[in-house]
Sequence to fold (368 residues):
Amino acid sequence: PQLNTKMGSRHLSNAMILPASSSSRVGRQRRGQHHRNKNQSSSVVVSSSSVEDFDVAHDDEDAKNTLEDDDETHRRRRTRTTFSRRNSLKAGVLTAAAGLGVFTTLSSSNVFGVQVPTSSFLSSSMAMAATSDEDLTFAYFGNGCFWGRQHEFVSLEKDILNREDVQVKSLVGYAGGKRGAGGKNKDTVCYYYGAADTVYERLGHAEVVQIAYKDEDEFKKFCEVYFKNFNKTPFGMQRVDPQDSGPGYRNVVGIPGGIENEKLMKQMESANANGMKLVRGEGNDFDNRGKPTENDQINLVWIVDSDKLPFHPAERYHQFHDGLGYKFPESYTVGLKRAAEKAGAIGKVPGCPEMREKAFADFESLEG
Fold:
């Protein structure tokens, strides 16, 4: 991809390749563009002096209007019922300068550990069935697009923990936002196709994968998988899909009690082989200029309290999906998805439109 040589008003040099800034990704929505921004093919060059406090650049004019889209603008955007991530594959393979060779990218009940309203797709009978999970504790991990990360955690469950298809607990969703949920009953969190006040990134959330563990040893195994999904750079660890930028793709881990949970933090620190910064998070919000309080940063992981910032399940079409630029076997994308649906672990999320995938990452509405 062609490189831009400045980020905001700063001209930079002595650099490595980092993803193109999503500068006010939410603000761009005002002009009818979807947040997802998978079609970015450019990168920016960032100097070593700027990486320590690297943050997604924000244009003040756009940022001021980040959360002020009017209903008509959003309505017009929703009429565009197809959306493609395919062009992002052009940006999916980023390789550092030859001399560095540092990385390459390939690309309200509690049921099943999910805080859901009584109107959720999970019925009361499913809630009763969840009692078999009483010996499990739930947490969530986020670092970039949740499609590939879910597959990593499912592979751990099946190959290492020897769980059967019906026992798989790793599900994609949204978490870590201080604004909670939107919609009429303030209980709805959706992907970008949802109503404006339900869009996950507007609510401060990130894309995450919920996991379930029975003891500290199992939790450490999930942490080890998580930290392997970063690439080493001269300036710290960077997630494997940096072309997705913005607070919706930030590195975040939610555990009961947050960073105060000494036992789990000990396991996480042990798995953190490359010494990423583990920082207390209080939940992402937006200031009066629209700038996120907990943003997408290199070499840093926000640690939040999953009891205070619960997991919200993503729509059915996101579950057990192919990776960004690589396909998974049908035993995963079809077999596991059917098993999860049959068990009631996934289904229609009330208040969120369900989409159909015409081709890879090319969605259209099923609701007209």
Remarks:
- Confidence is low (pLDDT under 50) at residues 1-131.
- The first strand starts at residue 3 and ends at 4.
- The chain is about 20% helix and 20% strand.
